[in-house]
Amino acid sequence: MKASLFSLVAALGLFASSASFAAVAPYGPYKARKEAIKYDRKAEVERARREAAQRKYELERQRQLAAQQRARLEAQRRLEQQRAAERARWEAQHRHDDHDHDYGYRH
């Protein structure tokens, strides 16, 4: 009798320490559906947040590219103006510079 009582206590002790005893009872169908809906909503919110962050990043990148292009075009325009002004200045200085030309006359 003592041996069977001892084996029963040992079996209960082993059962209590096993993972199956500590495992959560399975959900009912309503609760499982509710959890699935909750998970789907969380996943949808996370996807929307990720897509919004991606759109924000893309818009910022496009804005930076447009700003770089505007700056490049402005620098190019200033350089063209500078070259035109320098060309006009040089031509004005050398307009009446006929040195080394005898235009057919011998001195």
Rough outline: rod-shaped
Structure classification: mainly alpha
Beta content = under 5%
Question: What's the SSE pattern?
Answer: HHH
Distance N to C terminus = 148 Å
- How many beta-strand elements? 0
What is the residue-averaged pLDDT?
83
Helix content: over 70%
Report the major sheet. Answer: none
Unreliable stretches = none
Q: What is the C-alpha radius of gyration, as a whole number of Å?
A: 44 Å
Number of helices: 3
Protein name: ATP-dependent DNA helicase
Keywords: Signal
Account of the protein in words:
The protein is mostly helical and 107 residues long. The chain has a domain at 26-92. The protein has 3 helices and no strands. The protein has helices spanning 2-17, 19-22, 29-93. The radius of gyration is 44 Å and the shape is rod-shaped. It comes from Hymenobacter taeanensis. Keywords: Signal. Residues 73-107 are annotated as: Disordered. This is ATP-dependent DNA helicase. Residues 1-22 form the signal peptide.
Name a few traits of the molecule.
107 residues; mainly alpha; 3 helices; rod-shaped
Concise overview:
With 107 residues, the chain is mainly alpha-helical. It is 79% helix and 0% strand.
Write the layout of secondary structure elements.
Layout lengths: L1 H16 L1 H4 L6 H65 L14
